[in-house]
Design a protein that fits this description.
The protein has three domains: about 80 residues, Winged helix-like DNA-binding domain superfamily/Winged helix DNA-binding domain (Arc Repressor Mutant, subunit A, Orthogonal Bundle), CATH 1.10.10.10; about 100 residues, 3-Layer(aba) Sandwich (D-Maltodextrin-Binding Protein, domain 2); about 100 residues, Periplasmic binding protein-like II (D-Maltodextrin-Binding Protein, domain 2, 3-Layer(aba) Sandwich), CATH 3.40.190. With about 300 residues, it is α/β, with parallel strands linked by helices. The C terminus is likely disordered. It is globular. The two termini are about 35 Å apart. Helix content is about 45%, strand content about 20%. It has eleven helices and eleven strands.
Length: about 300
């Protein structure tokens, strides 16, 4: 099995298109098509379903993709390791929760960019579930996610703790009052968000029946909907305190076992820790301070 074929396979799977993969790989579509067919013949099963809009993975292709992604990542890491000397440089792909980006990361990112201008840092936002998957499948070098999280392939370090609060329209006086609100909606990030799971468990424990959640991709959109009286959400207290002071929202503190959540920085155990990654980890530790030992 040729490494170049696996690289082509991974690019086609990511783009869902032979043509777009060819463009990324700086080759022609016929070459991509030939390499994919050669790989399918070698493994003995179709890896893609062809259709008018491009291609999609077969079940066999989906099972094979994580391995191809890891091989592609290992090739990048091998080159990075060979060239990794002197000041930190090169690409560094990180992920973060939307709330962490809004509340915690701006000072670190701006300081890191000034100190290490040769590092090409990219930041992706997502849910704990999606970010963890992206790290495991080597699409991200590391990510800030909500704990607890225990995976044998991941190195994790608690970087800070948050206090979560229930955020409601200002006319809601208590959690118990939610039970009398007709057609109550939760305003949340998409499925896979740990805050969403905590909110659903909190309401269920309080005997509150909520309607189908409304999903949004940004904190600002969620808070705007809550302020408009559409529903309720669960977010870090530091993110909403200043908005609450403006009088458009109400926050409700929760018992520590429901409110306290750790934010972890995760990366693969077997990944190469580049100079750029080590410099970023040091910057994060200097900003947040050590909270607990790494796992």
């Amino acid at each position: 099995m040729d490494v170049a074929d696996l690289r082509v396979f991974e690019a086609v799977a990511r783009h869902g298109s032979m043509n777009r993969a060819a463009s990324e790989l700086h080759t022609v579509q016929s070459n991509v098509t030939a390499r994919v067919r050669s790989l399918e013949q070698e493994v003995g099963v179709p890896l893609f379903q062809r259709h008018v809009r491009g291609v999609s993975l077969t079940p066999a292709g989906r099972r094979m993709l994580p391995y191809a992604t890891r091989v592609a990542r290992l090739m990048i890491e091998a080159r990075t390791a060979a060239l990794d000397e002197g000041p930190p440089s090169g690409p560094l792909s990180l992920g973060t929760l939307e709330t962490t980006a809004a509340l915690r990361l701006s000072p670190i990112l701006s300081g890191f960019a000034r100190q290490y201008p040769q590092v090409r840092l990219s930041l992706t936002t997502g849910t704990t579930c999606s970010l963890t998957t992206d790290v495991l499948e080597c699409r991200l070098d590391g990510a800030f996610v909500a704990g607890p999280l225990n995976h044998p392939d991941l190195h994790s370090e608690t970087v800070f703790r948050e206090e979560l609060v229930l955020v409601t329209p200002r006319m809601i006086g208590s959690v118990k009052q939610l039970a009398s609100v007709p057609d109550l909606k939760t305003i949340v990030f998409r499925l896979g968000c740990s805050y969403r799971q905590r909110l659903e468990a909190l309401l269920a424990e309080a005997g509150v029946v909520a309607m189908t959640p409304l999903e949004f991709g940004s904190t600002d959109a969620i808070l705007a909907c809550v302020a408009a009286g559409v529903g309720v959400t669960l977010l870090p207290k530091g993110l909403v305190s200043s908005i609450v002071q403006a009088g458009t929202l109400a926050i409700h503190t929760l018992p520590p076992r429901k409110a306290n959540v750790e934010t972890l920085f995760i990366r693969r155990h077997d990944s190469y820790v580049s100079g750029a990654m080590m410099a970023f980890i040091d910057a994060a530790r200097a900003s947040f301070g050590p909270v607990v030992a790494a796992a």
